[in-house]
From TrEMBL:
It comes from the Bacteria. This is D-alanyl-D-alanine carboxypeptidase. It comes from Nocardioides zeae. GO terms for molecular function: serine-type D-Ala-D-Ala carboxypeptidase activity. Residues 63-348 form the Beta-lactamase-related domain. Residues 1-34 form the signal peptide. Keywords: Carboxypeptidase, Hydrolase, Protease, Signal. It holds the Pfam family Beta-lactamase.
Amino acid sequence: MSTTTTTARRTARRAAALASAAVLSLVAPVAVQASPAAADPLPYDTAALEAAMAAAVEEEHVAVVGEVRGERGRWSGADGVRDLASSEPALARDRFRSASTTKMLVAVLALNAQERGLWRLDTTVDDVAPGLLGEHGDVTVRELLSHTSGLPEYLGPLLVAESGDDYSTERFLEVVGEPREPEQLIAYGAGAPWTPRGEFVYSNTGFVVVGELLQRVTGQRLDDLLRSWVLGPAGMWRTSLPDDPRLPGDALTEYATMYGERVDLSAFDPTMFGAAGGLVTTTEDLNRFQRALGSGRLLGAGSVRLMREVVSTEPPAYGLGSYRLPDPCEPGSYLHGHNGASYGTWTVSYASADGQRAVTLAVTGRDLDTLTPDLSAFNALVGEALAQTCAGEPVQPGARSAAPVAPVHDLVDRAPLPPRR
């Protein structure tokens, strides 16, 4: 069963709509219990999904794309426009920057390297790259993947240092448009005050380090490694880890609101995020990743268990490059995945343990002027989509909703610019 819905909204009001996404929050579903499955799964309520997508765009996003896979088959849809200049409608198969969902794939690479005998999770940074973290070379791969190494975030220090006294939008675009080497990002993070080792503190720098270690231990570029170990086996033919700012013609343009102005982020250089969040992908491909991981095509069962074994129990709990959320279809079970936030796109990708039920959604347009925007419509879309992965109706009809959970640091863990002087 497959239904594809694409709804274009071309009015000037829609064309002017921009993001309302929190810089420090993650959307996650309210746990709901599903009724016993009927003999035949219910069809998708496409009207409800379409309405939820339209509401997300009304919430001042530019475009929304999504794919839902579950007991009822497959549904994909889109709303809004791919690009504000052309008003070309967004399509469900459009590519986008998925930011921190990249961490799931990098964690798979790290665990695959352990399965191949190239290292162990307890391998230290100095074992592979002596001196990369200075006096903190005893930090392990496991600690980096679980955000418990104490290694600080690099984004804030980099942006503050390179903006100097120029806090203009133009200077910001210049800074994020510069090509970067992993060592440069790592140096900005490692030079900041470290947090206590063993404490969960979300840090993108850790995954940049893991990416650099993987390149050294395998002798391969990270993008090549990703293609051979993950993208190929999972059938993710439209996913890449580019080092070029130019997006494909079928990609959603990123936008942000800064100082009250709408900003086109096409000049953004993905090496600014690197192994922590440089992925360009589609909703279909991320769901393919979830199925491949859950079915054992990417890792052995023991490695998957390690990836999902939580080290932080604060909701949503975190393992190795993977969040854990309550499963709305199977009480007592969990969904696994990751969220992502680039400067102009929000992404959510979660799946059941076996990967057969999966939801991936992405919205473009973010308001970087505020830390607490209203995300209720996007939350509702996430909840509606997750509820519809179940074979039957939720016990409580009103439970098709989602609510914000405790703040979670994501790729963009703070407003990117200091206040204008």
